[in-house]
Hints:
The protein is of the alpha/beta class. Among the domains are: 89-164, Dna Ligase, domain 1, CATH 3.30.1490; 198-351, Nucleotidyltransferase, domain 5. Helix content is 39%, strand content 30%. The chain is built from eleven helices and 19 strands. The strands form five sheets. The chain has a six-stranded mixed β-sheet, sandwiched between helices. Strands 14-13-12-17-18 form a five-stranded mixed β-sheet, with helices on both faces. Helix 4 (188-196) crosses helix 11, helix 6 crosses helix 7 (251-261) and helix 6 packs antiparallel against helix 8. The chain starts with 7 loop residues before the first strand and ends with a helix. Mean pLDDT is 90; it is low at 392-404. It is a peripheral membrane protein. Belongs to the FtsA/MreB family. Its main location: membrane. Cell division protein that is involved in the assembly of the Z ring. May serve as a membrane anchor for the Z ring.
Amino acid sequence: MKGKGEKSLIVGLDIGTSKIVAIVGEYAPGEPVEVIGIGSHHSHGLKRGVVVDIESTVQSIQRAIEEAELMAGCEIRSVYAGISGSHIRCLNSHGIVPIRDKEVTEGDREHVIEAARAVAIPADQERLYSEAQEYVIDGQEGIRHPIGMSGVRLEARVHLVTGAMSAAQNIRKCVSRCGLKVDDLVPQQVASSYAVLTQDERDLGVCLVDIGAGTTDIAIFTQGALRHTASLPIAGDQVTNDIAVALRTPTAHAEEIKVKYACALAQLAHAEETIQVPSVGDRPPRRLARQTLAEVVQPRYEELFSLVQAELRRSGYESLVAAGIVLAGGASKMEGVVELAEEIFHMPVRIGIPQHVTGLADVVSNQIHATGVGLLIYGSRQETRNANGSQRSGAASGLWGKVKNWIAGEF
């Protein structure tokens, strides 16, 4: 989509369990994305990252899109959408091709990645994302940019992320029912990594933990490349549920109490602080110590971080994430979360605030918008790459067209 002037429009649609957010950006190749509009709406049609009610999800997407269109003053036709859920799987694959002209070209690079992607995956799964980790030319390892290098044999190590075909189709169906096209479906942890991680962290080794309402999405990077992705079906909604049960209060009030007063580390809540808790039915509200609330919340976060740590160990990269843990997502926005995570992981932990964008940066500089902003950055890079590719192929076809015309004219 073309925006004002020569800038192009790009839209990120974060389809989350608790909310759906549409973020509109403008970009020109080589420049950071400028955020010009944002719209969000509560989502009731998803459970643990997966669509369970199409009608309800369509309405929420529609509202978020309308709000974003109004703010940005544009018409949205296509989106880069996020996908999450415990159906997400990952594998590291390997491809080998001969180098045709003894020098690696863009074509060779594309061929070797295609060769690495040609692995058998279950019939009910589809490829969502692939990223080259490194290239090897004639046995020489650790090459990041192979184009222009000389050699005979090119190898690529590639990280593939797959997801359930039905889950992906349901998201596409919801978006197309709103009259929009899906440019690409991107795993949410991959999208968030574009917004919150620095290149130094990717090089040193880092684990991104995006804690949403329905899922906790994990992405592990070492030596500048994505090595492992996972999605756990435990997140902020479980915390809300625990509060509702323990304090005997309706879920909507439990969510409000969690956002306003919850603390993930009981020792940070002072004994004299009290909160008002609405009761179920027409019983009068009660006053409780804030520490009581923290004692409900802390065990759930401890369990969550222990599961993340188990996943990190299972991946085999635990000793390689020297830059530590970066937390993103709405459920990381709580007092005491960083301190508790540091106690459990014994690593440096920081909150990942979206960066690398301009415009309404102050509105989106909140870990809640990590996925939405990441989708914009990912989308702008894809569009730039596609434009460069089509210019090249366009030039080639133009030249070939002239040759064909000349031949036709001669005979």
